[in-house]
Each structure stands twice: as C-alpha cells, then as structure tokens.
Amino acid sequence: MHQPESPYASFTDLLVSLVFIFLLLVAVLAINVRPPGKPESMPDKLAKLTSGLGDKLRDSGVAVQVDAPNGRLTFGADVLFPVGSADLTLEGQQAVAELAIQLRRILPPHVHNLSRTDDTPNPVEPLSIDTILVEGHADPSPFRGTGGRYKDNTELSAARARAVQLWLFETTPDLAEALSGLLTTTSQMHPLFGIAGYGESRPAKLGLPPTDPAHRRVEIRIIAFPPNNK
Fold it and tell me: At a CB cut-off of 8 Å and minimum separation 6, what does 227 contact?
C-alpha cells in the first residue's frame, strides 16, 4: 500500500538544494571577484613605456638598444651621422623620424596638451614624465671634425643631440608645439625635451677599448618624477 510522502522530506530536499545553490554562487564569486592588484610603481611604468617604445622601433627596422629599467634608448652615432659631422645621414633621418612617430603615439596620456592618435595606448595610471633628454656621446679618439665647426668631441656630441631634437620636431611639428607646454601632473611651464653633449666623459661601458663604436652614440633618456613629486 502506497504511503503518503512526508512533508518534512520535501522541505529537507528543498533546503539541501538552496544550500547547494548558495555554495555554488559563493564559489563563482570567489573566482571572478579578486582583490585589486598592487598599483604599478613608477619604475615599472617607466620600464613598460620604454620597452614598448623600443619594440615599436625595432618592428619598424630601427636599430636601437633598450635599457627599459633606466628609461634609455641608444642609437649608434655611426649610423646616424658621418664621421666628425652633426648632419644626419639618410638612414639617421629615417630612424629619428620613426622615433618621432612613436613618441607622438605614446606620449599623449603623459603630456598635458598633446592629443591622442588612433593607436595611442591607454594606461591605467599615466607616467609622470619630467624630461626627455637627448644625449650625445663620443669616444676618446682625437677629434676628426672638418670645417672648423666644432673644436672638440664635446661640442660635436652636443650638436648631434641638437640635430636629433630638431629632426624630431621637424618631422612631427605638433610634437614640438605641444611639448613646449605644461606637463600632465605639474603646474610648471618648461619644455619637455632637453639636450646634452658629454663628449667622451661617459663611456658606454667600462672596460671597452677606447675606439669601440659603442661609445659613439645618441641616447634618448626618459626621466620620470618619483611618486612623491606628483
């Protein structure tokens, strides 16, 4: 003879089902809702920006050495310039023009009055850039300049840094106009780009022969504010 089902059994089954659904929801939320990650430090942001810039240059066929942690891009002076000259070669002009294109692409989030391009990255936290320094370097070989334009390697290296800066701005005019204005995170007015000529006073690497071509170079160095200077 069929016995009627106990209402307590039905209630127990319902309760077990609800508990199971609750535990399933908790598990899903635990997987999908994670605590926010640690914010990127200034050195990490600088390294990421520099590395990305170097990758784009290499993809375009530009020979460049990248020191991402220190925000440094290095171009061989023997590729950019003839011996003893601060006039860019055709290959040098092409390399610096590509650098201008990539700077124009990546800088808008970090610079107050530079509009975005279609492929400008969108970092979560912009980098607080203080200066982009164009540095000229030479080896300790006796100066071989012609025409009396430069008296020594220091003057030549400064002229080469200036030539790179001028070509950056000539190939991308709105870069020059925008970068004379305010920076993103300060109220100070000063140009973003600076130049320096060090001659042979800063060798590429200790222990290299004095005539090693690595000493003859132009470096682009991105200098950022430490976090407490924002």
Answer: 41, 42, 128
Angle separating helix axes 42-59 and 90-106, nearest 10 degrees:
140
- In terms of DSSP bridges, do strands 129-137 and 193-197 run parallel, antiparallel, or are they unpaired? parallel
Cβ atoms within 10 A of the Cβ of 227, count?
10
Q: What's the CATH code of the domain at 70?
A: 3.30.1330.60
Q: Does residue 215 lie in a domain region?
A: yes
Domain span at residue 165 reads: 42-229
Does the residue 37 lie in any domain? Answer: no
| CA 107 – CA 119 distance, rounded (Å) | 11
Residue 8 lies in a domain: no
Domains in the chain, number: 1
Per-residue pLDDT tens listing for the chain (230 residues): 555 555 555 657 666 677 777 777 766 665 555 455 567 788 888 999 999 999 999 999 999 999 999 999 999 999 999 988 999 999 999 999 999 999 989 888 887 667 787 888 887 778 888 889 999 999 887 766 556 678 889 999 999 999 999 999 898 877 776 665 544 444 455 678 889 999 999 999 888 888 889 999 999 999 987 544 44
Closest CA to 75 of 150, 160, 151: 160
Threshold 0.85, pTM exceeds: no
**Count of C-beta atoms within a 10 Å radius of residue 103:** 22
57 is a domain residue = yes
